[in-house]
Amino acid sequence: MAETDPLGKNWKLWGGILAFIAAVVILGLIFFPRTPPQPEATPTTPAPSVPVETAPPSASPSASASKPASGDCPALSTDTSFPNDAPDTEWKRHPAGMLLPVSAEHGPAKMDGDFWHCFSHTPTGAVVAGFTLVIDFSAGREIDAAAESMNRERLFQEQGSGTSDEGFPPMLGYRVMNSSDDSAIVEYLSKTGEQYAAMSVNLVWSEKAHDWRLDLSASPPTWNTVNDPTSFTEFK
Known about the structure:
With 236 residues, this protein is α+β, with helices and mostly antiparallel strands. 14% of the residues lie in helices and 25% in strands. Strands 7, 8, 9, 10, 11 and 12 form a 6-stranded antiparallel beta sheet that branches. A hairpin with a 2-residue loop joins strand 5 and strand 6. The two termini are 28 Å apart. The N terminus is likely disordered.
């Protein structure tokens, strides 16, 4: 099993990693700038073909919510149950080109250009946040998608100039590896050809922003090959 940092050089183009995995029978994850992959699997929910600038949340009658103590995010779900079932989502296109799951109850409640943010302070909110914040930080060039740290500054400078790229492979599913009130680790499943791979994302809750942020202090997101995709929960 091989693994590498997608936050090094041009990690916004990690779509090329998965295409190369199939070609070299998973000997390593190597970056090829602007080489769009051809994944066999796509999200089952149709997505619009144009960027969506705003998507105000509207909580369902059964969802509980409370006003945030700080930050400018609106009230979202406070259901802290473990997300064994995928949340109801609508697939929308980020300005950078990637299709992302959006939940009325869990976020992102704000879509400020390339910065999609404001997620519920719940395990499900972390699931929706992780992959979106990766796109915000890399392709969207939004440094505030990550919590402040020395690593954040270095990685942001190393990734170079942001460019749009619609060649990202879709995220097919997720699994929560760790979850607490102030942190979470979520893995996201993708596929190219017959090979599956997963990106592991560390998240931290920001009391200042009252929102989830990427935690790059210890390590950036990493990729691993996956032999058993059934251990992941499929997105709707």
